[in-house]
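Section 5.1 Outputs to date
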Amino acid sequence: MQRAAVDGAERPSWADAGLYNPDLAPVPQAQRDWSWVNMATVWMGMVHNVVVYEAAAGLMALGLTAWESLAAVAVGYAVLFLAMWFNARAGTRYGLPFCVLIRSAFGPHGGQVPVVLRGFCAIFWVSVQGYAGAQALDAMLAALSPGWAAIGGAVLGMSLRLWLAMALFWALHAWIVSHGVHRIRNFELVAGPAVIAVGACATAWGLHVAHGLGPLFAVPPGHHPASWTTFFVGVTGMIGVWSTFAVNIPDLSRFARSERDQALGQLIGLPITAVVFMAMSVITTSATVIVFGHAIWDPVELLLAFHSKWLLMFGGATIILATLSVNVAANIMPASYDLVNLMPRRLRFGSAATLVLAIAVLFAPWLWFRDAQGIFAVLGALGGLLGPVTGIMLVDFYLIRRQHLSVADLYRYDGIYGARSGWNPAGLIAFVLGGAIASAGYVIPALASLTGFSWFIGIAIGAGTYAVLARRGSALATGPLRVV
């Protein structure tokens, strides 16, 4: 096959320079070496984070019991698993990332719209998760070192001490991603099991102290099960944490050895691990009611409550490891691919990851944390907008393309996916309509009750609209199925 040089790298002669980059190219079969163990540990590393740990508190605040909360987690993550399993298949079959696959439904130019939106959401999460991790690091260093605690001053509304903690935490991120995707895989291979092992130790402590599951699992006499509406709100809340990742799951599955590896790995790493981890958090928190007289859901606060430097060091390192794990795999990795897709001639994965970290600081997360509701409102609205993208991708791959794609045409402006000058009206209309309806509750007070179901609404409207428009639109003719 003839190849042409592009900015120091080679590209196939059939690929347009503005759409191709070695990081965006199909992963050769010989390099798709992620087993089900790798997929499982990557998901373990992402699921084991402070947000998920504290999620049980939010569910119980809705009125759910501990058992009902675990059931909501199980249902929510089972739905996520199904969506990701089906959306991951295209990545596994063709070795392609999300930002390339999306061109099939939106066109090479139109595909930049959901890519930019997903990239924005990922960088926002990098900022939020990174700042939360830096706060934990700062709290632990202050407890361990009087010199650190004595650092004073503030810059741009944030303490100098926290700026230093952020710099250290950002440097850890940069080190992990410095050697690309394979270093991330190897990091998650250690991080995921390590966090679950520490969680198991905390759970054993909780069971010992409480002489069983503890008071949080004790259902009050006469308690009536929560209404289905409350339960469903809890389910959609769990889905909302990972709904954006349902869009770009091909970024991971493209490295899987087979369909079996990606499916089995996600089954173990997502719904099963989530339920186990949530149970660990409730059992541990249940023990804090007995030991400290009140429930402590914040793991950093729990570590400080023991007044043990050794426990603080050990537990703090685990929290840092867990936060790094989720941020690298779930946020930096997809955001980096999205930036590479926007500037394929200028960026490679490593330089894009560095740029992601720099942009994340510009989001000024310390200002967002003054209004936690603002964070979740933004992320909820973005999740509602990305729901239609998931629905469109599923309909396009399974119903319209019948699971067959011409890889070469995904890298051409004039290929069979070029639609109308690189813009596919069907995908764009379905995206705008689905996103508008799914997010209406955020701007129309009378529809505020719909915000809890925005992901489901977005998927349904986006998928249904695209199915109708794609069937009728001549611009979506699949053409000859040329697989390179």
